């Protein structure tokens, strides 16, 4: 994302503590000569965007829930996650350090940009974008690990880096502060050339999700009404909408489009990702370099879609044709070369391994509609007309009949199911199961391929990666690990 903005600055901002090392980058840019112009500010902010990634590593979201089965002939860390034999050295749980790199970049922008002589409105906007990005990083951290260090100032020294963990409540207070301050200074939209930047809708939508998460399983929590109100603010902006079909929402043309409120943008065969190939059919010749077959969808997920649901064909690959020969894929065959595959984020036009240009969504308008429906049901102890309307917008776009006349519990379960079907493979399933108190039951119920997961209540949090604890001895480990 916006890679062109970050190249001159990488040597400076990758680690804020480089100031202490007195290094002179090849470009002759240092903290003494940089942060002088509006272009410098733009580049520094570009470095913040470059650290933005999907909310959770796709392997973690798929294999620690009831949505996916890792191929047991693949990397050993995935089956260990799947069976809940999770240790702090598992290579797939290491998003901790990367998030703090992004946080430090945002802190640098907030510290340095205000002193640059430039347009004041643009300056405020850049700082607001950085606050929104910092909030996203902290929201991911607190949901994955619980208590985490709260660092809101630029790191300028090697001294004082061994900071302890701060309570979840304190982290959420900062997230809410950042998002509220950001929404006040962010625009509703940008020209097409600036698509992908943080907007009012991004800040409001993330606040809605924060409130929904904080409400958790607490009936009558005030956060339900706050979540509904913020989601409604996004809807009332009039900026976002659903595409006519689910397929359009994941087409290359959806990059920067009306449904993507926050997305990680890629360019085909220029700066791409490899999720389509990675989660594609093992050794499938239809992908550049052949499919990796990291994990397959579970039968419980696959069968949850009815035949009328148009999302099923977009989300899963059930057959392919190569050299005139059709290969049909199975949801139960243990052979990874014959397994139904995830294809939702696959860019079929990519010619290079890892060159897929489809956007990775972090927040879509469909998600906001479903949050609004869920929060209204909870806040009013039953679905309102607006709650039904929001839920049915998502359902009818998928080709399903609208719902009506449901009780509080039936509507709650309908929204939960709709979130699973609509947001599959978008990093939402684990977070949704945890915030609604259903993770353990869902994992225990999904026992295909002899999973027998050893899941315990403490597994709602991941362990702090051992490499980060080695670097910071004041990082206490989560209980159970």
Automatic annotation (TrEMBL):
Q: Where does the RagB/SusD domain start and stop, copy by copy? A: 320-481
Domain SusD-like N-terminal: where?
A: 96-212
Q: What keywords tag this UniProt record?
A: Cell outer membrane, Membrane, Signal
Recorded hits in Pfam families, A to Z, give: SusD-like_3, SusD_RagB
Q: Establish whether keyword Membrane is in the entry.
A: yes
Which InterPro entries does this one have?
SusD-like_N (IPR033985), SusD_RagB_dom (IPR012944), TPR-like_helical_dom_sf (IPR011990)
Entry-linked Gene3D superfamilies: 1.25.40.390
Which superkingdom does the taxonomy of this entry point to? Answer: Bacteria
GO CC, alphabetical: cell outer membrane
Give the chief site where it resides: membrane
Where in or outside the cell? Cell outer membrane
Q: Which family does the entry's similarity section mention? A: Belongs to the SusD family.
Q: What is this protein called?
A: RagB/SusD family nutrient uptake outer membrane protein
Q: Which organism is it from?
A: Spirosoma sordidisoli
Higher taxonomy = Bacteria, Pseudomonadati, Bacteroidota, Cytophagia, Cytophagales
């Amino acid at each position: 994302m916006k890679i062109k903005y970050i190249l001159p600055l990488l040597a400076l901002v990758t680690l804020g503590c480089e100031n202490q090392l007195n290094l002179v980058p090849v470009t002759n840019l240092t903290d003494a000569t940089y942060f002088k112009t509006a272009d410098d500010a733009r580049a520094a902010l570009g470095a913040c965007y470059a650290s933005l990634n999907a909310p959770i590593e796709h392997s973690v979201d798929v294999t620690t829930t009831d949505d996916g089965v890792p191929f047991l002939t693949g990397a050993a860390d995935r089956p260990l996650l799947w069976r809940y034999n999770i240790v702090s050295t598992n290579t797939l749980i290491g998003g901790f350090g990367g998030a703090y790199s992004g946080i430090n970049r945002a802190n640098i922008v907030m510290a340095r940009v205000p002193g640059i002589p430039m347009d004041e409105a643009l300056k405020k906007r850049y700082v607001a974008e950085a606050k929104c990005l910092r909030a996203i990083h902290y929201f991911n951290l607190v949901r994955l690990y619980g208590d985490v260090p709260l660092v809101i100032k630029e790191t300028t020294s090697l001294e004082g880096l061994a900071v302890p963990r701060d309570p979840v409540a304190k982290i959420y207070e900062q997230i809410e502060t950042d998002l509220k301050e950001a929404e006040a200074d962010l625009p509703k939209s940008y020209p097409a050339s600036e698509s992908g930047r943080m907007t009012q809708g991004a800040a409001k939508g993330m606040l809605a999700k924060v409130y929904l998460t904080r409400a958790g399983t607490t009936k009558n929590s005030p956060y339900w009404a706050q979540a509904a109100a913020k989601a409604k603010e996004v809807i009332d902006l009039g900026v976002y909408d659903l595409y006519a079909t689910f397929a359009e929402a994941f087409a290359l043309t959806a990059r920067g489009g009306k449904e993507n409120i926050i997305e990680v943008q890629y360019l085909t065969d220029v700066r791409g990702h490899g999720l389509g190939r990675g989660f594609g059919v093992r050794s499938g010749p239809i992908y550049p370099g052949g499919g990796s077959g990291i994990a397959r969808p579970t039968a419980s997920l696959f069968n949850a879609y009815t035949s009328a649901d148009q999302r099923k064909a977009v989300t899963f690959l059930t057959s392919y044709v190569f050299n005139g020969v059709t290969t049909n894929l199975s949801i139960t065959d243990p052979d990874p070369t014959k397994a139904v595959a995830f294809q939702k984020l696959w860019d079929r036009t990519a010619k290079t391994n890892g060159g897929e240009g489809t956007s990775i969504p972090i927040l879509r308008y469909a998600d906001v509609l479903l949050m609004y429906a869920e929060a209204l049901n909870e806040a009013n102890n039953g679905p309102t007309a607006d709650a039904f309307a929001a839920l049915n917008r998502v359902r009818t776009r998928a080709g399903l009949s609208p719902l009506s006349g449901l009780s509080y519990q039936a509507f709650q379960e309908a929204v939960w199911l709709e979130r699973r079907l609509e947001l599959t493979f978008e990093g939402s399933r684990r977070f949704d199961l945890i915030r609604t108190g259903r993770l353990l039951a869902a994992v225990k119920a999904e026992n295909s391929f002899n999973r027998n997961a050893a899941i315990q209540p403490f597994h709602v949090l991941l362990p702090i990666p051992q490499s980060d604890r080695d670097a910071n001895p004041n990082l206490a480990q989560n209980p159970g690990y």
